[in-house]
Amino acid sequence: VPELPEVDHARRMLDTWLARTHIEKAQVFDARILDEGVKPASVVRALRDRHVEAIERRGKWLRIVLDEGRVFSHLGMTGKWVSGGVRDDALPFERIRLDVIAGRTRRSVRYVDQRLFGRFVLVRRDKPDIEAWTSLGPDPLVDGIDVDELHEKLSRRKLAIKPTLLDQTVLAGIGNILATEGLHAARIDPRRSARDLSRKEVSALARGLRRSIDTSLSLQEQEGPVITYVEEPGAENPFTIYGHEGTPCPRCRKPLAKMILAGRGTVFCAHCQR
DNA sequence: AACGGAACCTGAAAGC
DNA sequence: TGCTTTCAGGTTCCGT
After folding, report:
1. Nearest nucleotide by C1' from A173 CA?
2. Closest amino acid to nucleotide B6 (CA–C1')
3. Which residue is the nearest neighbor of B7, CA to C1'?
4. Protein residue closest to B3, using CA and C1'
5. What letter does residue A196 receive in the DSSP assignment?
6. Which of A35, A55, A195, A234 has its CA 20 to 30 A from that of A133?
7. How many angstroms is C1' of B9 away from CA of A95?
């Protein structure tokens, strides 16, 4: 599942494939990736002959800045950007295709998304950014995590800390895996009310999240341009406790437990997370 | 108002 | 064997 580190990887790849190129042709193969009521043909028309200026990321959102307008891309659960040649066949689950040229180099950048939870939102020149982007909280990589600010914000939340971390207005880019890993690193029980965390615990949480993000980023660097998500068949699980329920906690060796918390699978160590 | 749960999707894996 | 159910999780919507 794409969370902050996976989306940052996508941003770096798109920067080499798409930034500073000219879109010769765009195709949208499934309208469900667009906002309700938006016609593929109108998106295709608007993208043709645009110059791609930059690729940015906040949280799990990508913003593709064009000479006129910009595109917001969210990878949902199974979305991936992939680069190929213009003569290559369509990939399985290919939803968007952008054929671009930079100097003499032609490239065909494809968006694949099996489960279609991703989004591709074109915003025209002079229109405001989408609310999902503007309402994002601080991004741990772009802005860093300010412990005092986070502590203050959490102190006003009654909900359990784990579902609170999944709220993208608290911190941008934290998903189920990072929340699980970060709370284990900080030895915090995911069921604790967010407002009960001490400043010291919030500080440990910030460090744990940052460490989990950095670990994922460095593993992706070794993987190359197309990374594998942990839920894909046959994928290795590089995480400390996510997906390791039933096996010994790497810190205290007691078996890791799993529960559903606010509708999301939650692995934790009932012995050393308190 | 805040929170839980369902819906949106698909395919793999587990259950029967 | 083969059909049915469950599960995965990002986000939004709906009902309580």
Report:
1. C10
2. A263
3. A117
4. A159
5. G
6. A195
7. 14
Which H/E stretch holds residue A184? Answer: helix A176-185
Task: Enumerate residues near strand C (beta carbon within 7 A).
Answer: A 1-3, 59-61, 74, 76-78, 115, 117, 132, 166, 168, 175-177, 231, 258, 263-265
Q: Can you spell out the DSSP letters for A2-27?
A: --HHHHHHHHHHHHHHTTT-EEEEEE
* Spatial distance between the Cα atoms of A243 and A158, rounded to a whole number of angstroms: 27
Distance C15 C1' – A262 CA (angstroms): 16
Given a cut of 90, is residue A46 above it in pLDDT?
yes
DSSP percent split of chain A into helix, strand, coil, nearest 5: 30, 25, 45
Instruction: Identify residue A126 by its one-letter amino acid code.
Output: D
- The catalytic residue positions of A are 2-3, 60, 264
Tell me which residues have their CB below 7 A from strand B: A 32, 77, 114-117, 157-159, 163, 233-234, 262-263
Q: What is the pLDDT of residues A9-32, one digit of tens each?
A: 999 999 999 999 999 999 999 999
CA dihedral (A88, A34, A118, A44) in degrees, to 10, reads 30
pLDDT digits 0-9 by tens, A203-242: 999 999 999 999 999 999 898 888 988 888 888 899 999 9
Contacts of A63 (CB under 8 A, 6+ apart): A55, A56, A57, A70, A71, A72, A73, A129, A133
Which nucleotide comes closest to A92 if you measure CA to C1'? B10
% of chain A at pLDDT higher than 70: 100
Give the pLDDT of residue A171: 96
Tell whether pTM > 0.70. Answer: yes
- A146: DSSP letter: -
- What is the average per-residue pLDDT within A90-97? 95
Selection from A80, A78, A58, A74 nearest residue A120 by Cα: A74
